[in-house]
Amino acid sequence: MAYKTIQTKTEGRVGVITLDRPKALNALCDELTGELADALAEFEANEDIGCVVLTGSTKAFAAGADIKELQEKDFVSLYLNDPFAKTWESVARFRKPIIAAVSGYALGGGCEIAMMCDFIIAAENAKFGQPEINLGVMPGAGGTQRLPRAVGKSKAMDMCLTGRMMNAEEAERAGLVSRLVPVDDLMDVAMEAAEAIASKSLPIAMMTKESINRAFEIGLSEGIRFERRVFHSQFATEDQSEGMAAFADKRAAHFKHR
Ligand code: CAA
Predict the structure, then answer these.
(1) What is the value of ipTM here, to two decimals?
(2) Ligand 1: residues whose CB is within 6 Å?
(3) CATH architecture of the domain with residue range 201-249
(4) CATH 3.90.226.10 fits 6-198, yes or no
(5) Is this entry keyworded Lyase (predicted)?
(6) What pTM did the predictor assign?
């Protein structure tokens, strides 16, 4: 499908979505969020895709919701028809592994979308922040919930109440990002990670993601029980037989994603 505000491509079993509104630093306007949801739906439906990388430009992953559009909203119009809800849900509920490759600004909704991905690989110039308070609002796409889970209460309060940005080093120290890489290496590292994930069994990778995400929603004993059930069910897959047989035969596994 041809998009206007994003670009998509596939490389092997990896799908890449590049946010592409350079003049507005990839601000998340209604059109972009709609296209992002559509692109994710396409990749989710495509069984040949095992992992997705979501990225932006060198200067900006995304500078947040489009403030010029937000300015026109009122309570009732947002309440009746929240244009972001579809996108936020589409990223947060995306079932396959998805990596955010962040360079430059990841602010407001941009930071929130990055946090909805499974992990963040950041370039050294990345800047994360929830500056909504400067606009007279608070984060509205999961920031007040996901940021404290990622970096702890103190830093999340600091970020959301002062609106200050966190540089890439601080973000790595705080656990918001999994890897910090030179700007020029960002896509190579992200693609290498995505290819590694996509080479595993897709159903097993999806179940692993589902199980880790459960850890943020339920208590430990329920979580352990959930994990055990899913683990047992994996012995019904062809890929479990293949993975263990390959280890015993001292050869590489050839997963069929079944
Ligand atoms: N919405 C709309 N347009 C934006 C934008 C945004 N979030 N961020 C940047 N732009 C536009 C600017 O208006 C400017 O457009 P013009 O050239 O037409 O004036 C263009 O992008 C370039 O921006 P700057 O000239 O400001 O670039 P800069 O390098 O001087 O500053 C910046 C970069 C610090 C990121 C600054 O643009 C900025 O502070 N942006 C706003 C960040 C923000 O507040 N984000 C939160 C949005 S609200 C939100 O996301 C709510 C939610 O939780 C869902």
Answers:
(1) 0.98
(2) 24-25, 27, 63-68, 105, 107-109, 112, 131-132, 135, 139-141, 143
(3) Orthogonal Bundle (1.10)
(4) yes
(5) yes
(6) 0.96
